[in-house]
């Protein structure tokens, strides 16, 4: 019995891993080879699990391109669960105000494990935009403005654990995301209250973010703005940062008033 329980837990863990990997490419879908590489599982195992998930409607397989997409059953389950997680509805007024007052694109991201996931986007009026961030995109904590804003207010021990990743962030995102560089960005975020991402992921694409806290005072979400470098000059950063902090505070207060909102 214990062996069967371990095997069952491994299957659940693998299934969850595959769903997250496919979810990172909501529009184009994920190729089998990319899923195999990202999962660390063997190709036959991945292929078997993907087909099983597709049979249950949790994944879709595009026969012409060979790509895998999240399936309709996940949409149904997500719609049912949405009423328990009111964060998106609570955040929309803040996102709309940020977009209206700045002209930039405004986002809500949530912490899920060691990553942030973009949940909501509200476009601003400025015609030139950055497309690094959109709904469903995942980044490791410490990457992008939302991940930096959240990570900056974690306990020191947890930050140490996250940065002890064997060089994964450095290898994937480049020298600007070496542990010491990230620590410097975290320190600057704590000093200002908000984070500034000066094109660290894509040159010319800037972002700023502020953490939103749960009822226990833990950073669980972040509001952020993204746009082109010319819109985030030093003389404008203070204005943008002040707006982000104001809206992040408002959203934190709303969440504390509604104990079932959020996670």
Describe the fold and architecture.
The protein is globular, with a radius of gyration of 19 Å. The protein folds into two domains: 2-77, Arc Repressor Mutant, subunit A, CATH 1.10.10.10; 85-257, GAF domain (Beta-Lactamase, 2-Layer Sandwich). The protein has 263 residues and is of the alpha+beta class. The mean pLDDT is 89. Helices cover 49% and strands 18% of the residues.
Short description:
It holds the Pfam family IclR_C. This protein has 263 residues and is an alpha+beta fold.
Task: Using brief descriptors, characterize the structure shown.
263 residues; alpha+beta; Arc Repressor Mutant, subunit A; Beta-Lactamase; 2 domains; six-stranded antiparallel beta sheet; two-stranded antiparallel ribbon; 10 helices; globular; Tscrpt_reg_IclR_C; DNA-binding
Helices, strands, pairings?
Blueprint: H1 2-23, H2 32-39, H3 43-55, E1 59-61, E2 68-70, H4 72-81, H5 87-102, E3 105-112, E4 115-122, E5 138-140, H6 144-151, H7 156-163, H8 168-173, H9 179-192, E6 195-197, E7 205-213, E8 219-228, H10 234-257
Q: Give the strand tally.
A: 8
Computed Rg: 19 Å
For the largest sheet, list the strands in their spatial order.
5-4-3-8-7-6
Task: Give the strand content.
Answer: 15-25%
Topology as a string of helices (H) and strands (E): HHHEEHHEEEHHHHEEEH
Write the CATH homologous superfamily of the largest domain.
GAF domain
| CATH topology grouping of the largest domain | Beta-Lactamase
> According to CATH, what is the class of the largest domain?
Alpha Beta
Shape: globular
